Amino acid sequence: MSGKPIAPGGTVGILGGGQLGRMLASAAAEMGLHVHIYCPDENPPAAEVAAHYTRAEYEDEAALIRFAESVDAVTYEFENVPAETARILSEHGIVRPGPIALATAQDRIVEKNFMKAQGILTAPYADITDETSLKDAVESIGCPSVLKTRRFGYDGKGQAKIASPEEALAAYDEIGRQPAILEGFVKFEREISVIVARGIDGQTAAYDPVENIHKNHILDRTLAPAELPKAVADEACAIAARIASELDYVGVMGVEMFLLPEAGSKRRLLVNEIAPRVHNSGHWTMDACAVSQFEQHMRAVCGWPLGHPRRHSDAVMTNLIGDEVNEWERLATEPDTSVHLYGKAEARPGRKMGHATRLYTLGKRPPVTPS
Ligand code: AMP
């Protein structure tokens, strides 16, 4: 891996054209970099703010090679980049983060095995390949538990809860009898996440842990910072940094964790999953930190020094899902609130259309109760 930074004037390729790509492209532009978006969709939100856009399939080898050769480094804004696509790109250029991180994050079993090998706690889990392994796992892990497809799950999709052993087969049918993982259902107190960055020199920088509140399996609000004892917050950041280091990661990563209610114990944190990319629970950094997660990712990918992850303000980030985007005009009248819209034409239910971040003086964020 080259240690020479990609200087202003250079070009970063981004695989994927959604809102994460759009915010990465805007951050790159602020750094004097050019961005080339590669995406199979028509009119992707990211292309609107990028210098170059290739519309092609992720399986189009010739287009991928042209793309890799036209940029100084390639990164991505979604984790389900096909392995073959990543292989072709890395044969023809620099890809950051690298293939180990992708392979680990794409498969829930590989991900959990990785955590186990690191001594990092997770929910109890078992590999499900057929009805027999499912029956055995339900017996050993117990109920309630949750059955998840190993691959391609997001926002609660590809998941089915199992309240009692009799429901196991129906849950298996519900997820299409795909290769799966059974996880013990964790009685967590809160869900938190850490956005961590790792540079090409191995330095890491973690933003303070935040609390995430979900509605209909989709992130609704992020509270920054999460209210945690310092030892727990430090432990969460240390876990995230260790994961990034062990994966030889370059870029920004989101690490989702469950906080268990045992007060005072250091072993209160279970890792749920990692996202090898910028993360929705890091959007607040755009307004509450000198260097946002998007700039931080571009800095890491380009071999620049990482920015300091400290906050100048506390924040509450609220996602605008579907019709909620119609609130933009009212939100724009709110003091200390920044409204970010993704330029998507159609506000379908469940679609992330934008987000709003309200800033508070450090230490003055009001407690927010789940809606
Ligand atoms: P995931 O796609 O794994 O992030 O799961 C989506 C959401 O489902 C999480 O944010 C949790 O709210 C919930 N969830 C997932 N796995 C578990 C588990 N093992 N125990 C309890 N809740 C879970």
Can you summarize this structure?
The chain is an alpha+beta fold. The chain has three domains: 11-95, Rossmann fold (3-Layer(aba) Sandwich); 124-184, 2-Layer Sandwich (Dna Ligase, domain 1), CATH 3.30.1490; 190-360, 2-Layer Sandwich (D-amino Acid Aminotransferase, Chain A, domain 1). It has helices at residues 19-30, 61-70, 83-91, 99-106, 108-117, 131-141, 168-174, 230-246, 285-288, 293-301, 328-333, and strands at residues 11-15, 34-39, 52-55, 73-76, 125-128, 145-149, 159-162, 180-184, 190-198, 204-206, 210-215, 218-224, 251-259, 269-275, 314-321, 337-341, 352-360.
Shape: globular
How many alpha or pi helices?
11
CATH superfamily of the largest domain: ATP-grasp fold, B domain
Structural class: alpha+beta
CATH overall fold name of the largest domain: D-amino Acid Aminotransferase, Chain A, domain 1
Mean of residue pLDDT values: 95
Rg for CA atoms: 20 Å
The first-to-last residue Cα distance is 47 Å
Helix content: 25-40%
Number of domains: 3
Can you count the beta strands?
17
* CATH hierarchy: architecture of the largest domain: 2-Layer Sandwich
Largest sheet: 9 strands, antiparallel
> Could you list the spans in which at least 5 consecutive residues all have pLDDT below 50?
none
What hetero molecules are bound to the protein chains? adenosine monophosphate
Percent of residues in beta strands?
A: 25-35%
| CATH top level label of the largest domain | Alpha Beta
Question: What string gives the helices and strands in order?
Answer: EHEEHEHHHEHEEHEEEEEHEEHHEHEE
